[in-house]
Amino acid sequence: MRTNRRLLGLLGVLLAFTLIATACGDDSETDATPTATDAPTTTAAGEDPPATTAAPATTEAPASGGTLIWAHEQEPPDMALDDPNNNLTITSWIWRAMLEGLYGIDSTTSYYPQLLDGEASIADNGDGSFTVTGALRSGLVWSDGDPLDTADILGTHAIIIEGCTTATADENADCTDAVYNLGDRTGSDMITSIEAVSDTEFSYTLNAFFAGWKGLFDRLFPSHVIGDAATANDLFPEWNLASGDPIPSSGAMIFDNWERGVAVELVRNDSYNGSTSPDAKNPGLAFVDGVRINFVVDTDAQINALKTGEAHVIMTQPQLAFGDRLGTDSNITLAASAGPVFEHWGFNLLNAHLADSNVREMLLFLLDKSEVMSALYTPLFGDLLPAEGLGGTYWLSNQPAYTNHQSDYDGSQIEAAQAKAEASGYVLGDDGIYEHPTRGRLTLRVGTTGGNGLRELQQQLIQAQMLKGGVEIVIDNVPGGAYFGERPFAEAALAASASLGAEGDPDIWDITQFAWVGGPWPGGQTVAYKSDSGDNPYGYQNADFDAKADECDSTVDEAASATCYDELDAFVTQLQADGSGLVVMPLTQKPSFYAYNSAELSQNGVSPDANNSGPLENVQDYQFG
User: 534 vs 280, which has greater pLDDT?
Assistant: First the structure.
């Protein structure tokens, strides 16, 4: 797939931001909502998606059967997506087949009314508060036949804020003692009241404007079987009720079976309410009988499975082998595009070396992003990505508000890097590695999701760049998705980050490499950096950043909001006057790799790659020939 002008099925996969970490994250992906996985074209902030009409529920028999097989390298540790210890993109992608929300995400990374009967509205009450009103489609049901109505909206909110104080006109809810395992409650903690006006009509009031309001209630929980937060925490990891039955679905699929280390199986929801996505080809029940997600770590095995028809879909991190072996196969349709997913190196600011802003600047001066791009990404994606690499995290290179905040560090600047080290008392040793009189040798570990060849090559390339300037980088990978739970998102690591080292273990990792995956609202990126988010692994706490984030989230004017998020980005991508900042080195906007076996499938499903979307977003569309 050299420059992939051959891409026969370009699916504009557009993301914009509500994080998830992706491991291949982007299965190095992490959900912060930053999961965290990627293509061109964006809609302006706040732009409404095309109007959609509600699809009527249908009981018509599907036109074809068969089981859709998706080969993927990353297996989730459990199905509890919202738990900060398990916010991986793969988990989110599986959830999308089973739980729907008020809004969905389409291929332009715009919101569309999903369970809503048309657009909801938000009104300024004149006292600083704003009220959202909307209506659900009539006749919605869960897969077990129970009505899906406004009680589920209220029940979902109750689970999310259980244990929180109630928000007031002047203060957001205090969720220090919240029960449900959720890393970030931004927006939900601003709701002062919520009401079911009828079985379909609802309203809720926010104590201030919240730019990401359409992302609230992005999935509704079945309140008739999950009545409180403790129950949700108990049931979501295995996705089964106490009876052994699966948790009821509102999506096109129902959870069926999980053979650990092998596969997750889903079956068709024959009570599905129908799709309203503007991308949907089929508004009714899924054509396929079910989906099997085979966990295949080895890239060659994934490719072989797709080519032989043993798998029908791949949607994952790009690998050089995909282009070489699939790009010329007439039976395979490829699609790749650049969206709001970014690959980065992130710093543990609790590390003695990295706590020094001179050391962080040193690494930026030694990093040559253009070499990374030309060696690894241009051969796969041509000019789809900027040759100089990426210099931002809130807005990405194909979005109008993007600024390259790290352009001062472009190229390899070894003398400038070494001057920074020596200004902090480091001395170059006889072996070419700097050493500090109290901190010791300038050796730093970098880790990622082991087994991803492209990512490992990226590590080795940057390792060599750093060595030229006197920094020793030791590669410390963990296979697949296990990396997140064992390194940056380990419970002890997150505790150390939140307490600035007073609790937990601050020495589990030094530098992390993965991709954050987002959605239509850039403010979702904030959870990766905010002091009390629960999803901030970096040990970064800055009251000014927190205040600025709140300002951006509450800015009503779209142009001013876009500028505000760009200014917010500078806090973490540039060095601040007080020595804070430079928390991350964004490397590149990163397309995911999507391919399907068009010899087996007569129709595929458009697969928006945002944290709350993915290959199963339009699973009802996949059809065998």
Answer: 280
